[in-house]
Structures are given as structure tokens and as C-alpha cells.
Amino acid sequence: MSPMTAIQSATLTAAQLLRIDDRLGTIEINKLADIIAVKGNPLEDIQLLQQVTFVMKGGVTFKGP
Fold this sequence. Notes:
The chain is an alpha+beta fold and 65 residues long. The protein has one helix spanning 3-17; strands at 35-38, 52-57, 60-63. A hairpin with a 2-residue loop joins strand 2 (52-57) and strand 3 (60-63). The relative contact order is 0.16.
């Protein structure tokens, strides 16, 4: 599985299977956005997702720089 497919499986595809993709799964206007940030491009090195530098859930920062 490619890194992009793995990320989409955990986000968009999961939301589609749960039939909540109208609210979750992608970052778009009028959708809930829980996000993480990593240093680097996870499409080049998927293991970067294990080294989260920033977490935001419901507009609240739980972990930041």
C-alpha cells in the first residue's frame, strides 16, 4: 500500500465506511478538522507519522511546538 493510500484509508475511506464523510475524512469548509503535523513529508517517509509535532482536535491544540 502506498503512503497516500494508507493515509486515505485512515481518514477518508474510514469516514466513508462509517457514512460520516459529510463531516469528517478530509479538510474542507464546514467539516470537522482534527489534524496532526509532522516534520517532513509522510508521502516520502510514512514513518514520520510516528513523530507527531502538533495535534489539534476541535480547534484546541493538545500538543504543539
